Amino acid sequence: MCLSNAHAQKKVMFDLSHGQCQGSAYTADILPDYQKMAQDRGADFVLNRDNPLTSPTLEDVDVLILMSCLHHEFQKNITSEEAAALVDFVNGGGALLVFVDEESHRVNLKDFNINSVLEPFGMQFGDDLHLPGNCGAASFPGEIFKGRYEVPYSGSRTIKGGIPASACMEEGHLHSAYVKLPGGGKLYACAEIMVSLLMGGEEGRERKGPITFNQTGWFGKDSRKFIGDLLDWALESSDEDEAAVREIVHKYTESINTCDPALVDSIWSDADYVSFIGPAGRYEGRDDIRDKFVIGIFGNGFSKRNLIGEDLKVTVNGNSAWCEFTWRFEATRKDGKSHTGRGRETQILEKTPSGWKLVHVHYSGLR
After folding, report:
1. What is the CATH number of domain 239-365?
2. pTM, 2 dp
3. How far is Cα 211 from Cα 134, in angstroms, rounded to an integer?
4. I need a labelling partner for 109 at 20 to 30 A (CA). Which of 82, 225, 282, 327 fits?
């Protein structure tokens, strides 16, 4: 994968397995454009042409772009298994960008089953809106969009829930909205598909009052800026992630010093691949680490413990993070003798729906 300072080793997947990008000239050149936008942001870009959107397909994916089809005859519906996997994907820290078009010409909403994905997050697509064609929409500057962008909007449906991200220029109907979970997952939903097809007028061309459809084609000059900012938002790892990882490292040293089994359980994942390697041996699973390492060695071996971490370096990469630091250990053995030591440690963490958790630690002594 590509590497960059902004979005190291991220992967953007564009889904084609549900009848998207068929039967319209509008879609002829958008895939190279999306590939370039992803790669310009240091992310890998992959197409999913026919695999179901289940957990194996979504493994290692950071951002999934899911559009509806452009005509009923091409529609391939989201299965219940796919819907469950997509909900898990967002809950697990992934970013899902959804664009669904109008009912009358494009997609049967009930059969498409996208609301099974949105509703667990308090969002829902609804019926078609009856608005004048080619009326346009505009973004709200905020967490996602850096500015007010004008984009195409013609033939849409209602959307409920979430934080408003953009609105129609006629009657103020919601154009798109989003949610962001405490664990880092993101869901963006747009009730119209034109901006995702990168349609609109010339880049940078200002809208000058009412202009007829025949004079402008599909109006809206900022589709690429709109999607570019959306990808930036979907790919970014926030400062909150780094702060949360640092807090786990702090709690880790506290768990050694207190030998509190509840604290150990709260910071370690309960996954079966969790491990710990140190001079005393290898431990597998959270229970083994808690009972044999923390309590077995530190709790039973020392009456006083003071583990001090120094020079902590944290790297966050999507739903994974790793930390490096040196440490000093000052303690009193059960026989009253003092004990000191120094070492270097690496920790690996994963983001889960309940926050960041340790999955591996490897440490050794310093001479």
Report:
1. 3.10.450.50
2. 0.67
3. 10
4. 225
